[in-house]
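Q: I'm a student working through a structural biology exercise. My instructor gave each of us a protein and asked us to get a predicted structure, then write a short paragraph describing it. Mine is SAE1 enzyme. I'm not confident about reading structure output yet, so if you can add a plain explanation after the tokens, that would really help. Here is the sequence I was given:
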Amino acid sequence: VCLTSCSRDLMVKINQICHKNSVKFFSGDVFGYHGYMFADLGEHEFVEEKTKVTKVTPGVEDGPDTKKAKLDPAETTMVKKRVVFCRLKEALAVDWSGEKAAAAAKRTAPDYFLLQ
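A: Happy to help. First, here is the predicted structure for SAE1 enzyme. I'll explain a few features afterward.
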């Protein structure tokens, strides 16, 4: 389900229904130069391809590059990952007065607060 130009209450209500029925939910809007996008994919599983890192054995090479790990683009591994997305209601109900929130506020885009 994709929503745009809807009221906050309507978005929360539709997101609750989608989350309950395991339906992916996207919402977004643009206000001049500012905009937002929210996604609730429920429980989302995906596979990520990672490049293997080869360890350098000490004493084989000299110089500053010997301490760095070497990436071998020919060798990759597939890593299965799982992400659990929160509901829109939970994302909007964050308490920003605690100590943990102060650290999270530094990593949060100012547009989030502007749209609140």
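A: Here are two points you could use in your paragraph. Strands lie at 2-4, 25-31, 34-40, 43-54, 70-84. The first helix runs from residue 8 to 20. It's a good idea to check both against the output above yourself.
Q: Great, thank you!
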